Amino acid sequence: MSEATPVVRIVVGVDGSSASVKALQEGAKFAAELGGVVDAVAVWEVPSRHATYEALGIGSFEDGACQVLNDALFQAFGADVPTTVSARLVQGHPAKTLAACSEGARMLVVGRRGQGGLLGLLLGSVSNAVVSHAPCPVLVVQ
Prior knowledge:
It holds the Pfam family Usp. This protein is an alpha/beta fold. The chain has a single domain (9-141), classed as HUPs (Rossmann fold, 3-Layer(aba) Sandwich).
């Protein structure tokens, strides 16, 4: 009895930035070349001052993350999101959660959102952290 070949999975971190839209496109290219799939992940967390946000009438952070994810998918692919692309929301710290989500993946793709200079040493703090801690190769797209 032969074992099934595991599906190549490319995880892409999505935060709504133009760099994360490019990361989605690059991840989809790699997945297509490898006959794999894209796991688009938007990570959201509740700010420490959540009650203050609620008092100001700011809605659900999860709903906001869902909108960011859907918008990024539309910007990357238009109305025809490839069937090999799946999307999910995960609550947690962005860098730690993306690193955990990339367990078993062929690659993690993130956008470079950093402000330059000393902040994140030219990478954003999340992209810098996942480069250091992800259990798979990381591609940083700008």
